[in-house]
Specification:
With about 550 residues, the protein is α/β, with parallel strands linked by helices. It is built from 22 helices and 13 strands. Strand 12 and strand 13 form a beta hairpin.
Length: about 550
């Protein structure tokens, strides 16, 4: 039954809805999406959260004052989560009983572990029609908002009447075997050419420990099925460029649906692995790891480049001291292409350059012995380079559409071997699309040891480059998978030691975001905009094992 709820999230003050695959007109923005007029009708039909019964002779002034008083009472939040009347007032008695029944079944490991076998057996015994109706009234009814963009409108309208906003998430998955998943993963994550850089860091001798660390950014068949051990996140496997285009169309329809059904107050969520070949994310993640190691060799400072606050002049002097003359054209080109401000270097590369140029250059840095520019990125075939360009083009298309329709989009976090690339791409999308408001949101997994550090560095980048910062804090969905992979491939476990450490990390990240809010408020005239969109602690009353926390915020300071 885990399959049935895969990718769906319900709880707290945010609700993730399922947007099913649609076929329709070739017009990108013409679809079966509910219009604003349809939604307005649904909103009008939706039952109000509070009904004031009063004599018809009462004047409108007294009625308005009564409504205001009711609103004041409604705004008092119960932070103990013990007011069951407030928590379930949007639900009918049957809906509450259904939720209890469904969650109780989801807590039975035998049913969850054998859900596919049981579903096939149910279809065989009851027939597909009857089985589908039963599922619609139980599991689908609990976790799925509707069959299509028109069908979800009443659900969105009803929740909106109780002050609950929506997150639309395209989460359709194929039911494929583990063997097929492993085959697809290996085919899509292994390059067609074996042309990795000769040395992990140009000009530096063999570093066995770092070479083992880079092994995490290689595909391994035993971990090819990324669904294993994951029940709270959907998984996409690469099936060619045509399938990525179909995923793009459905994501665009989800964004359009958010705009039309929530009057731009909702969110859409995407996964970058749905939009391109995952091998490219692995290679880019490896480039980021190599760049940090190169930075450490040159400056002697560990960590991300941005936190060292090293000026280009200091970098030039360090290269000179290492025996690399800065007057060489290649070295001068490398120094000129750095991204920096008055506080120091932000990135070794100019990520604002057209990505085809970056790919063609293969992220070259001066060899610390010869001064010759050498690549940090493995060579790409012509086909792979085109696939990378296609992927980036799709990502830009998503965020341009979101900006045009004034819809906020959250980029979901994925496995740690993809995440450096996902976060880097997302931050660069922020620099382009978050200039006026927060459109792009990055996700931070607080079960990771480096979560706070990554959040802190990204906040610094947004502050220094002057764009709106959008973030979602979550605990994480891949813990067992990540730990098993780290142990098998002999690199450090990226996960916090226990649940308490993860909670502490979450609260630390949340506190830092709140500290920034306070800091920017005190800045007075420097403040352009600050928006706290949603803060939800979704607590399952049915199972202590279920604890999900989300935090979304956007921050910007005037440059």
């Amino acid at each position: 039954m885990a399959k049935l709820v895969h990718g769906a999230f319900v709880g707290g003050f945010a609700t993730r809805l399922r947007a099913n695959r649609l076929t329709g007109s070739s017009q990108r923005w013409a679809s079966t999406t509910a219009s604003k007029q349809q939604v307005a009708t649904q909103l009008a039909r939706a039952p109000p959260a509070e009904v004031i019964e009063d004599d018809q002779e009462v004047n409108y002034g007294r009625r308005a004052r009564a409504l205001l008083e009711k609103d004041k009472l409604k705004d008092k939040l119960d932070l103990t989560f013990e007011d069951h009347n407030a928590a379930f007032k949007s639900k009918t008695t049957m809906e509450v009983l259904r939720a209890l029944f469904v969650y109780k079944l989801c807590g039975i490991d035998m049913l969850v572990d054998n859900n596919e076998i049981l579903m096939k057996f149910g279809q065989k015994v009851l027939g597909k029609a009857l089985f589908a109706e039963i599922m619609k009234r139980t599991f689908y009814g609990q976790f799925v908002a509707g069959p299509d963009t028109v069908g979800i409108a009443p659900t969105i309208a009803r929740m909106h009447s109780f002050g609950v906003k929506s997150i639309l998430d395209y989460s359709v998955e194929e039911d494929i075997s583990q063997e097929e998943a492993e085959r697809r993963e290996m085919d899509s994550c292994v390059s067609q050419v074996d042309a990795r850089p000769e040395s992990p860091v140009p000009g530096v001798g063999e570093d066995k420990e770092f070479s083992e660390e880079l092994g995490r950014y290689q595909a391994h068949k035993e971990f090819g099925d990324r669904r294993i051990g994951v029940t709270g996140a959907r998984t996409f496997f690469y099936q060619g460029e045509a399938n990525c285009e179909r995923n793009l169309e459905n994501i665009l329809r989800s964004i359009e649906t958010v705009a039309n059904t929530t009057q731009t107050t909702g969110f859409a969520a995407i996964k970058l692995t749905a939009l391109g070949r995952p091998q490219l994310l692995l290679q880019l993640s490896e480039v980021i790891a190599r760049a940090r190691r190169y930075h450490e060799e040159v400056t002697g400072m560990k960590g991300q480049v941005i936190e060292a606050h090293v000026t280009p002049e200091t970098y030039e002097a360090k290269l000179e001291a290492a025996g690399v003359p800065s007057e060489k054209p290649e070295v001068k080109q490398f120094l000129d292409n750095m991204t920096y401000d008055r506080f120091g270097v932000i990135h070794l590369f100019n990520w604002s350059r057209p990505w085809p140029e970056l790919l063609e250059d293969q992220f070259r840095v001066p060899n610390l012995k010869t001064g010759k520019l050498e690549p940090l990125m493995s060579a790409l075939t012509e086909e792979e380079a085109e696939q990378f360009r296609n992927m980036l083009g799709r990502i830009h298309t998503v965020f341009q559409a979101a900006k045009d329709m004034d819809v906020r989009v959250m980029v979901d976090a994925e496995q740690t071997y993809f995440q450096p690339a996902i976060s880097r791409i997302t931050m660069e999308m922020m620099t382009k699309y978050n200039k006026e408001k927060a459109i792009v949101f990055n996700t931070y997994q607080c079960y990771l040891k480096e979560a706070f550090h990554n959040l802190e560095m990204d906040l610094e980048q947004s502050d220094r480059q002057g764009f709106f910062f959008g973030a979602k804090l979550v605990r994480g969905a891949y813990m067992n998978q990540e730990r098993a992979r780290a142990e098998s491939l002999h690199y450090e476990d990226p996960i916090n030691v226990d649940f308490e450490a993860t909670s502490e990390m979450y609260h630390r990240c949340l506190s830092e975001c709140m500290r920034r809010i306070s800091l920017y408020k005190k800045a007075g005239g420097e403040m352009v905009s600050l928006r706290l969109f949603v803060c939800s602690f979704a607590l399952s009353v049915w199972s202590l094992r279920c604890l999900v926390s989300n935090f979304l915020l956007s921050i910007c300071r005037k440059r």
